[in-house]
Amino acid sequence: MHNRLMRTTITLDDETHEFAAYYARSRGLSLSAAIDELIRKAQEGPKPEPDIEIGPNGFPMLPRTGRAITPEMVKRFSEDEFE
């Protein structure tokens, strides 16, 4: 792996630039550092979601991972329950 910096020019559409600029400001990064961080996160791929199980009382139970329950997880469970 190379640790050299490469200077290049890229063209972003307005929405992508706005997102990258907001991401950079919210984390105190330069736009270049933010884009680099976002690309590295994309290379890692998605993190697996915990399996949702139904407990003996009928309520959903998540494994104890210390992670927050996301709106996407709630939506997925709701869709599964009503199908």
Keywords:
83 residues; mainly alpha; 2 domains; two-stranded antiparallel ribbon; 2 strands; 48% helix; 5% strand; elongated
Draw up the topology in text.
Blueprint: H1 14-27, H2 31-44, E1 53-54, E2 60-61, H3 71-82
Antiparallel strand pairs: 1-2
Helix pairs in contact: 1-2
Describe the structure.
The protein is 48% helix and 5% strand. The protein is mainly alpha-helical and 83 residues long. It has two domains: 1-45; 53-82, no CATH class. Strands 1-2 form a two-stranded antiparallel ribbon. Helix 1 packs across helix 2. The chain is elongated and about 55 Å long. The chain starts with 13 loop residues before the first helix and ends with a helix. The model has no long low-confidence stretch (mean pLDDT 83).
- The best one-word shape is elongated
Main sheet makeup? 2 strands, antiparallel
Fraction of residues in H or I helices: 40-55%
Largest sheet: spatial strand order: 1-2
Class derived from helix and strand content: mainly alpha
Count of strand segments: 2
Question: How many alpha or pi helices?
Answer: 3
SSE topology string: HHEEH
The number of domains is 2
Which ranges are low-confidence, i.e. pLDDT below 50, for 5 or more consecutive residues? Answer: none
Compute the separation of the termini in Å.
Answer: 47 Å
Please, what is the average pLDDT?
A: 83
Please state roughly what percent of the residues sit in beta strands, choosing from under 5%, 5-15%, 15-25%, 25-35%, 35-45% or over 45%: under 5%
What's the gyration radius in Å? Answer: 19 Å
